[in-house]
């Protein structure tokens, strides 16, 4: 993985450090400087304690830093075929924060854990074509900073399509082309995230 990343970004003008971070081992985190943004893609569920993990992630972020957390939020049968034999899938020791008998957490469980871990301005996105139990969510959460920063995050992200309110207020005619709706939703979410990242990096 690291070798691939080094090849992929070898011509990048930015200075890049390549290293393995085991978030379950707190002493490893001391080697990291505070960062503006963390992207975690279907990985944080493979830890022993979700809330403790999120606190450690928050400890790496600067005040007002952004966590982009993409996670499965519903158990799928094919996940057993692709991941059930992996060691990380069965590390969890906090069953009350997980879906029954599995390492994944639901959207409400992630939202509660993010709040308990100290994150603010948390917004969860999912495809508008999904049901009331979305199978995957993108959580955008911020570490405590100024009120101005929190307002920017909420303004940029909380009204993007893909929220439950958008789905509830839609009429049957608005759902005729699910692919178009999904595309518009992802475009709006991406635009909001890019706007927030530009705000962070421009400070």
Question: What's this, in brief?
Answer:
The chain is α+β, with helices and mostly antiparallel strands and 203 residues long. It has helices spanning 2-8, 50-60, 77-83, 107-116, 147-157, 164-168, 178-201; strands spanning 35-41, 61-72, 120-125, 136-142. The longest helix has 24 residues, at 178-201.
Protein architecture, described:
The chain has 203 residues and is of the alpha+beta class. The chain has helices at residues 2-8, 50-60, 77-83, 107-116, 147-157, 164-168, 178-201, and strands at 35-41, 61-72, 120-125, 136-142. The protein has a 4-stranded mixed beta sheet, with helices on both faces. Helix 2 (50-60) crosses helix 4 and helix 5 (147-157) packs antiparallel against helix 7 (178-201). The two termini are 31 Å apart. Mean pLDDT is 75; it is low at 156-161 and 165-176.
**Secondary-structure element order, N to C:** HEHEHHEEHHH
Number of helices: 7
Q: Name the overall outline.
A: globular
Largest sheet: 4 strands, mixed
Helix content: 25-40%
Give me some keywords for this one.
203 residues; alpha+beta; four-stranded mixed β-sheet; 7 helices; globular
């Amino acid at each position: 993985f690291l070798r691939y990343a080094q090849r992929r970004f070898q011509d990048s003008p930015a200075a890049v450090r390549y290293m393995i971070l085991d978030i379950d081992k707190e002493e490893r985190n001391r080697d990291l400087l505070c960062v503006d943004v963390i992207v975690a893609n279907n990985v944080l569920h493979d830890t022993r304690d979700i809330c403790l993990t999120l606190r450690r992630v928050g400890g790496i972020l600067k005040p007002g830093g952004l966590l982009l957390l993409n996670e499965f939020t519903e158990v799928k049968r094919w996940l057993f075929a692709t991941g059930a034999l992996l060691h990380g899938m069965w590390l969890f020791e906090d069953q009350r924060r997980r879906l029954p008998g599995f390492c994944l957490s639901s959207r409400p469980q992630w939202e509660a854990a993010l709040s308990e871990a100290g994150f603010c301005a948390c917004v969860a996105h999912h495809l508008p074509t999904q049901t009331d139990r979305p199978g995957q969510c993108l959580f955008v959460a911020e570490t405590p900073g100024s009120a101005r920063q929190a307002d920017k995050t909420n303004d940029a992200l909380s009204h993007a399509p893909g929220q439950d309110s958008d789905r509830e207020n839609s009429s049957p005619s608005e759902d005729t082309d699910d692919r178009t709706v999904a595309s518009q939703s992802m475009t709006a979410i991406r635009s909001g995230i890019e706007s927030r990242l530009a705000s962070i990096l421009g400070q």
